[in-house]
Amino acid sequence: xxxxxxxxxxxxxxxxxxxxxxxxxxxNKESPNFQAQKVLVVGLTPDGGLQRQFExxxxxxxxxxxxxxxxxxxxxESNVNDIDQSEENLENLKMQLLNESxxxxxxxxxxxxxxxxxxxxxxxxxxxxxxxxxxxxxENRVVYENDQVEDYPVYNTETSLFCLCPGRNNDLIxxxxxxxxxxxxxxxxxxxxxxxxxxxxxKNNLLNxx
Length: 210
Hints:
By secondary structure, this protein is α/β, with parallel strands linked by helices. The chain has helices at 2-15, 48-64, 72-75, 87-99, 119-127, 133-145, 186-203, and strands at 20-27, 38-44, 68-71, 104-117, 151-163, 171-181.
């Protein structure tokens, strides 16, 4: 039994080598034929350097697929977080984007954070057999007293693709929830995130690939 559990752990570990994974997605069934051709890429984060790095990586990935893409840090004169969010201003912004032939906005943001127990810790918990309360108590007392519980951060993110369609509201075409698991470095996390996002967009046929 222990060997089977160990093999299961190895399979999960090797399958999870990327720091990002798509955990949920929604697609608008009422807009089945939409494919983005010119996209404004927006990364919502108070860290200006991280925003620029993320938008640069995603724009490059889109351009590699022959999609016209523009970074919000280049498009707007001020930080996107400082833009007037009134309905009138957003409608004016939509018309401006339409006049410049944009047909979609791709918006990404972090929506939460949680901690998870490592697979190694989970495996030890599964395979360890305690025959008495004293065994269980003494083992866990040592762990907690020495702060040896192994956990790692998981960042919950959300990316939404909005259609800028004339005569229609800013329709939500697709939304994906991607978890960033135990991010090693910013560069690696962004690379994995962009790869996961691009795979989801292509799988759902949301890009006008040429």
